[in-house]
């Protein structure tokens, strides 16, 4: 029972993200910017602290936009007439988004300016020595793409049902990444068998259709192959 409540909590939280993405144009822009920054980070040898700064900054912008949406929804629920206090509440929430966005621009300037300098493009070659970093970024992008597609098709819940199967996408993403990293046929075979078992369990449990699982698996594989080929 506790596990079901925990899963429901995750579902509600992700549904909140999906709702904000579907209804707010700015959230779509934030997601696009987040994916772009994560992809760019693949080409530069960021330290752990710099990666933490990037992840925290992205999270801060997304959280601010979601809080802004929540405030606007609550205000609209309470009153549909103009009121100075309602305006103040919405303005303050929008101001929080602006501050987080300006902070993101400042962080991006500090982290990327020198690295985008033509004289330092040699750093691009260093990424091939960081397979763990590539895998981490690929996994995040696969999760974001899955959420976007679930929001677009609007079926199922974030963690149960709908197109595509997120579990299958993540499982095959990790299996493909392990193949690139290990270059060991035995480990690769075991990884894909485990990914197949994850996908099969989603169908066996009547959580996803075979088509939804196949689409999720293809997404996980294609995105991972694309990222590892980019840095090859």
TrEMBL record:
Q: Does the keyword Transferase apply?
A: yes
Judging by the UniProt lineage, the source's domain of life is: Bacteria
Residue ranges spanning the membrane: these are 29-46, 52-71, 92-112, 132-153, 174-199, 211-231
InterPro entries (UniProt xref) = DAGK (IPR000829), DAGK_sf (IPR036945), PAP2/HPO (IPR000326), PAP2/HPO_sf (IPR036938)
Q: Which Gene3D superfamilies match?
A: 1.10.287.3610, Phosphatidic acid phosphatase type 2/haloperoxidase
Major localisation:
membrane
Q: What class of enzyme is it?
A: transferase
* Family the entry assigns: Belongs to the bacterial diacylglycerol kinase family.
Q: In its UniProt entry, what is this protein called?
A: Diacylglycerol kinase (ATP)
Source species, please?
Answer: Thermoanaerobacterium butyriciformans
């Amino acid at each position: 029972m506790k596990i079901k409540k925990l899963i429901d909590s995750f579902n509600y939280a992700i549904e909140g993200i999906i709702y904000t993405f579907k209804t707010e144009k700015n959230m779509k822009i934030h997601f696009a910017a987040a994916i772009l920054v994560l992809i760019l980070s693949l080409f530069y040898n960021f330290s752990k602290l710099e990666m933490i700064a990037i992840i925290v900054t992205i999270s801060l912008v997304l959280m601010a936009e979601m809080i802004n949406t929540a405030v606007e929804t609550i205000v609209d629920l309470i009153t549909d007439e103009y009121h100075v206090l309602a305006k103040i509440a919405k303005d303050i929430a929008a101001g929080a988004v602006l501050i987080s966005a300006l902070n993101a621009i400042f962080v991006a300037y500090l982290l990327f300016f020198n690295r985008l300098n033509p004289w330092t493009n040699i750093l691009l070659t260093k990424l091939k020595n960081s397979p763990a970093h590539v895998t981490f970024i690929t996994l995040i992008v696969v999760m974001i793409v899955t959420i976007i597609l679930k929001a677009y098709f609007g079926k199922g819940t974030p963690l149960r049902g709908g197109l595509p199967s997120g579990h299958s996408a993540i499982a095959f993403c990790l299996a493909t990444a392990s193949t690139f990293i290990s270059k060991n046929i035995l480990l690769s075979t075991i990884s894909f068998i485990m990914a197949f078992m994850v996908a099969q369990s989603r169908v066996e449990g009547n959580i996803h259709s075979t088509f939804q699982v196949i689409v999720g698996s293809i997404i996980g594989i294609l995105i991972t192959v694309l990222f590892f080929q980019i840095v090859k």
